[in-house]
Fold this protein.
Amino acid sequence: MAQAYHKPGEDFPRASADGVVAPDEFRAAMSRFITGVTVITVETADSSVHGMTANAFCSVSLRPPLVLVCVDHLAETYLHLRERGEFGVSVLKADQDAFSEYFADPERNPDSARRLGIRYRKMKSGRPVLDNALLNLDCRIVDAHQAGDHAIFVAEVREVALGEGEPLLYFRGRYGKNEAQDR
């Protein structure tokens, strides 16, 4: 059985016979990369808002302003993004970990959203985003690439709205904040 990760002073684990890292080993490795937490929102065909927590999100280009988000083919969000071709991004604040958990649950309860205080607002284009986020982006998909069990959606940023606060961080499977935020 493969080790979950390499510890200092130990021999490196051997690759599997086919040379591919096992999913649990890869997850353990990638958990050591700190990320911010975003919620991707899209208006559905029935005019409701669907959202998904995503930490596989980053900027790609300044000219033109491009970002990317990776979405599992099995996620409901994948179908909405393919259908709509546009989405909102909300970068969560340090105290919004409950929002992240809510949008990560595929069987979320709408009553929970009300109890958590989740509210949406519209960007100038009408794109729904989370109210009171650290940052909101209005994005239009310009390209998509299939990569393993995910799609990489590349999108042009059409509007930016900046909020105030500190970011919600994710590291080793837990939420946290930057220690510099306490200083």
The domain at 36-172 is CATH 2.30.110.10 (Pnp Oxidase; Chain A).
